[in-house]
């Protein structure tokens, strides 16, 4: 028996043009828009597996309220995103409410390294963290900072382990990395939103949950092939979404992006 719990680590508002990117100036539009989206949840997901609990993403941290946490020099963080995280929404507090201590986690898997998916690692400083090697590479240095990666907020001495996509994935996904010996929890490359974005597929008695990070912001965006306004590669994003659509058409799948308010209801309805 495998259970999944959504853990909400606060809220984010972005510009509407980030939710659905438009045209060749897709990545500039969010910087010049004056409206905000409704507040969107920031979900991490806890997989309770017989081999030990696995956390997918660490969510945002209440430390975002500290002065200077977000870089004022970066136009995206200055103009295009607002976070709201209460102290009891930190990931360690969310885990504690389920009776899980950080040292109980078998691993933390990051879908990608954007701040609202990894800031919570600061509350899990000694956890084993797995992520894509490509994602780690593109996040480094000045180029990574310009892309919006804030690696300065990783725990001191942070050393990730890299996912090894050496197995054949469930069609149409070409590659996979098993996270458990029974192969019921698989990391799958679903690049596009970021270069090394991965999703985590969980199987339980013929039903599936696809924990998708930001492969799309909502299920509807996945179904309609809507590419977000900050995607690193629209081409890869489209390919990833088409693979996800094919999989979801053939198998009963709860599609669980990080920012879709409907994710928890879908999880209960489809995965149990
Ligand atoms: Zn992201």
Question: What's the short version?
Answer:
By secondary structure, the protein is of the alpha/beta class. Helices cover 25% and strands 24% of the residues. It contains ten helices and 13 strands.
* Major sheet: arrangement of strands: 4-1-2-3-5-6-7
Number of strands: 13
Helix content: 25-40%
Instruction: Give the names of the bound compounds.
Output: zinc ion
CATH topology: Metallo-beta-lactamase, Chain A
Identify the overall geometry.
globular
CATH architecture: 4-Layer Sandwich
Oligomeric state as shown: single chain
CATH class: Alpha Beta
Q: What number is the mean pLDDT?
A: 96
Q: Gyration radius, to the nearest Å? A: 17 Å
Q: Strand count, sense and closure of the main sheet? A: 7 strands, mixed
The CATH H-level homologous superfamily: Ribonuclease Z/Hydroxyacylglutathione hydrolase-like
Uncertain runs: none
Task: Please give the alpha-carbon distance between the first and last residues.
Answer: 10 Å
Structural category: alpha/beta
SSE topology string: EHHEEHEHEHEHHEEEEEEHHEH
What is the total domain count?
A: 1
Strand residue content: 15-25%
Features:
272 residues; Metallo-beta-lactamase, Chain A; seven-stranded mixed β-sheet; binds zinc ion
Characterise this structure.
- The protein is about 25% helix and about 25% strand.
- With about 270 residues, the protein is of the alpha/beta class.
- The chain has a seven-stranded mixed β-sheet. Strands 8-9-10-11-12-13 form a six-stranded mixed β-sheet, with helices on both faces.
- Strand 10 and strand 11 form a beta hairpin.
- The longest helix has 17 residues.
- The mean pLDDT is about 95.
